[in-house]
Write a structure and sequence with these properties.
Layout (H helix, E strand, L loop, with lengths): L8 E6 L10 E8 L5 H12 L6 H10 L4 E7 L2 E12 L11 E10 L8 H15 L2 E9 L3 H9 L3 E6 L9 E7 L3
Parallel strand pairs: 5-6
Antiparallel strand pairs: 1-2, 2-3, 3-4, 4-5, 6-8, 7-8
Helix pairs in contact: 1-2
């Protein structure tokens, strides 16, 4: 559940020349997904994840329906522009400075193709981290495809560090890269 202050999100960013679908000042609204958003998320996400999954729609649907997962959708006016899916693991005991630490897992983040390169992904990642913090997470982890250069650049530029390669995770045996970022110290 989002805290009241974070339940609505509006960002205004000037981005210069953008795809025709967007204006120079893009206003995005972020909210928790409803069941009526699922088809839009699947339609947007399946092509993005097709290079990495044999069944991207099925995998995305499972992520959305995972118990305790939070799926948030960003809207440009009334049109979905992107989404992210977070899940959490509780450590179950104090660890260092944290009384009840959680690890957030960024299961998926996706931006509509015509909105890519406009900063929507960066804004979504920023909000995913804020949302994870509000849920008590101190660390965010993720997997990304070794050949997903655009995603790798986004994650690297925002402070994610490689922790280990994982062989055979994605379609055709493609290796995944595990990345981690400390959110709260």
């Amino acid at each position: 559940m989002l805290p009241p202050a974070a339940s609505q999100w509006t960002e205004s960013r000037s981005r210069g020349t953008l795809p025709a679908m967007f204006t120079s000042a893009t206003y995005l609204r972020l909210r928790l997904r409803t069941a009526s958003d699922d088809e839009a998320i699947l339609a947007m996400g399946a092509p993005l994840f097709a290079p990495y999954s044999k069944s991207p729609r099925r995998v995305l649907q499972a992520m959305i329906q995972e118990a305790g997962a939070d799926t948030l959708v960003a809207f440009d006016k009334e049109t979905p522009a992107g989404f992210f899916i977070l899940s959490y693991t509780e450590l179950g005991r104090p660890y260092g400075p944290w009384e009840a630490p959680k690890i957030a897992r960024l299961n998926a983040i996706g931006v509509r193709r015509d909105a890519q390169g406009t900063g929507v992904g960066s804004l979504l990642l920023e909000r995913a981290e804020s949302h994870a913090l509000s849920e008590g997470a101190c660390v965010m982890v993720l997997l990304t495809g070794e050949t997903n250069y655009r995603a790798r650049q986004l994650f690297e530029s925002t402070g994610y560090r490689y922790t280990l390669p994982v062989d055979g995770v994605y379609k055709n045996g493609q290796r995944a890269l595990s990345m981690t970022k400390v959110l709260d110290v």
